[in-house]
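User: Okay, second chain of the day. Same drill as before: sequence in, structure tokens out.
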Amino acid sequence: MKKTILLLAIIFAIVLPLQIKAQDQSQQTPPPQQQNPIIVKAKVTEIVSTGTEDTNPFSGQPGQASQNIPTQDIKAIILEGKDSGKTIELTNDYTPMQVGDDFYLSENPQPDGTFQYTVSAPYRINSLIALFLAFLVLVFLFGGVQGMRGIISLFGSLLLIVFVLIPGILHGFSPIYASLGVASLIIILGSYITHGFNKTTTVAVVGMVVTIALTGALTYYAIHANQLTGADENAFYLNQGSQINIDLVGLLFGGIMIGLLGVLYDIAISQAIAIEELHKIAPHVNRWAIYKRAIRIGKEHIGALVGTLAIAYVGVALPLILLYTKTGFPLLVTINQEIFATEIVRILVSSIGLILAVPITTILAIYIIIRHKEGDVSQETMEQEKEKLEHANHSH
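Assistant: Same drill. Structure tokens below.
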């Protein structure tokens, strides 16, 4: 049964992108030709001069300070594309560079047929590869085979997001249904790939799917109750010039669901394994006693993960928080802004999902993993376990 579910999930993950592509080819009309910037790799060969540029248009007025940024006039050689080997001169006001540095060059076509050259971004690929290799080595050294299976699961999840979720949304599928479907696929594939086909993994999978369904309903309510539109600067550019008007509210919903998966996966698997291990070490203990022990483990996990989740979101939004702090708006006015209300909804809904995952997964594990009958446990053993549990709760 479990292998059948996994096989169906794999088939769905393969067929859906093909269906999306076929629908796109049959229903979409070719977009109009437009001149987009050409991005190519280049290398700095000479620093001609350095200076500064004041980017504050109100500089010099009362209460307005200069905002000087460093600039460079540089010479660079293009390393790829039709102009490979060509040396050009341009102004760099992105970030200071040195001779020998690689960067991405933006070739912007002009109406007269010439190109305007600007620095698009420093070349970061080598550093990112080095960091990723360090990550793989550490996972292999300290995680072993299980860690590498987790890496495979991670890649599978990313492939589902890149080749199923994103194309589906861009080609007209509802972001709500697409995100729920992909989230379920990530849960099923990732769990069985990482932890194998066993009863404990199945418990965690079912617990996560039920939690995602309940959290999805709560997310839908929270978004509409707070009248969130999902509109921001990125969303504006997303719909600009697009033949399909993407549902931004649905996109917000999908982002919250996908963002919840990583932490939800951690807590569900942990609870299922906790039940399994408690039952192995004390097979004579009844379900209720193990449930209370496992819930205590879950409470500790919730306390750590909820704090981690909130702090992570605050860290990402720190520049925005600083910006609004400078405006001097009252706290309630600031919190009421959609950009902050959205993040608060994201934090609270995700945290509620994590909390719900603990009892849901624990109850499922109690009745699926533990098979002995209540009468198999003596009254004396029950009293001993009860005293130990009460002592552990008081000492904690």
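Strands lie at 38-54, 68-78, 87-92, 102-109, 115-122.

User: Thanks, on to the next one.
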